[in-house]
Design goal:
about 475 residues; 3 domains; 7 helices; six-stranded antiparallel barrel; alpha+beta; four-stranded mixed β-sheet; elongated
Length: about 475
Amino acid sequence: MPRLSLYRPDKSNDYDFLDNIIFEQFTVGGTDVVVHKYLGPKLASDDDATADKPQYSNVSVKNIQDLLFLENRDRKYDEDVYTMRGHYNVQDADFDLSQFGIFLSNDMIFLTVHINSSVKTLGRKFISGDVIELPHLKDEYALNDFDVALKRFYVVEDVNRAAEGFSQTWYPHLYRLKLKQLVDSQEYKDILNLPADEDNPDGNTLRDVLSTYNKEMEINDAVIAQAELDVKASGYDTAQFFTITVRENGEVYLLSADTTELTADGLITSDMVMMNPPNSAYLGYLVGDGLPPNGVPYGEGFNFPATALSSEGDYFLRKDFFPNRLFYFTGTTWKKVEDNVRTTMNPDSTRDTQKGTFINNTNYMYFNKLGSDVINATEGDIIIDTRLDFPTTALYVTITNQETRLLQDYAVAEHEDLFLDDGNGKLRIQLPIIDSVQETIQKTGRYDIYLYARREAERQAISKALRPRSDF
C-alpha cells in the first residue's frame, strides 16, 4: 500500500479543489482591480512621433527599446482594460520628516491576486510595467476644479509568489505584486491621455486631473523669474560705468564740433565734445555685453554700412557673428570692440551661446543629398518653384537664406502636399501650415534648396548614438 502524501508530482484534483476555494475567497472578500495591460515598447509606425525607431518589427513585452540603459521609455498599453479581484492590507501613508527632508513613507502597496484567474484574464502573468487602477480608492471630494473623481493608479514593479499562497499540496496559488504609485512620466502617456470621464471622451484627460506637472512648472518658472531679477546675466555688468577716452600721452580724446577734426590739445571748449571711446576700458570675467560704452547709439545688422555713411567713432553690432560682435569705426576700418558674452543664466535655446544652441539643440544633421538649387524668394512667399526634377525620392528639404543663414526644414512625411508638380515636371515646394500658422519666407533674398534622403537629431540619447548601423 503506498504511503499517504499530500504532494503529487502532477497537480491533482486536490490542487483544483483548493484553488477553487482560494479563488472564491477573493470573490467574496477581495476588491476590484482594473488592469491596463502593458504590450511592449512602441514602434516607429505608432502614432507617437517621439518614439525612437527600434530594432523590432512587432510589439512584444520581450522587446527592449534602449539596449544600453535597458529601459522602455515609450510604452504601449492595451486599449482594453481587464477586471479581476485582489486583496491588500490597507495602511496609513505618513510623512517622514528626517534630516534629509520630508518623505512619504508606506506609499507602496503589496497586492495579492489569484494566479490562475489573473493569467486567464490577462492572457499572461503579471509583469513589471502593468498598470493597476483601484476603483475603491476614488476620491469624490478632492479639492480641484473638475467634476470628476480622482482615480488612483499604481504600476507593477515586481512580481513574486506569495508565501501565504502555498497550499497543503505545496503548489502556489497567489501572486504578490509590489505596486508604486504612478506619476506623470513618458512611460505612461498612453494611460494618462485617456479621458477622465468615460461619458465625456472630449473633455479633460487623466493628465489634466491627476498630474502635478503644470503646477510644478509654474513654481519652476516663478523661481527662474526671481533668479533672473537677482542675477540678470552671467559675468559682471559695467554698463553703469562711464568711460573717458584718453590718448597714449594721457590727454583727453576730444573732437571739434565744427571742423570734425581731432584736437591737438586736451583743453575742453564749448565747440568740442568727448570722442566716443573705442572700448569700454573695463576688463574682467564676461564683461562684454555687445553695447557701446556710455550708452552711445549704435547700428546693427548682418553687413557693415557703406564707408561713406560711417563717421569716426561709430559703433556697429554684427548679428551674424556667434556670439554677436561690436565694432568701432576709425579712419577707414571697423575694429573689434567686444563680443556679447553676457547672457542669462537660464539655459534656454534663444541665446547666441553654446549653452543655448548646443545643450538645448533640437536641430538635425542631414545626409545623402539628392539635389540642390538656388532660388530668389520674396518675404511672405508660400510657393517655391525650383529647377529640380519631380517626382523625387527625397524625404527632407532644407531652405536656407544665404544672407542670414536662417534655416527652414521640413519632413515630407509630416506635411501633405509639401512637394508638388509645377506642370512642367519640376519640383514645386508648398510651405506647410504648422499649428494653424502658415509657414512663409521670412526675408527677401537668395535661398539654397537642398533635398536629402536621411536625417538624424544632433542631440540624441547615448544609446541611439552608439547603436551600430550600416554605412548605407
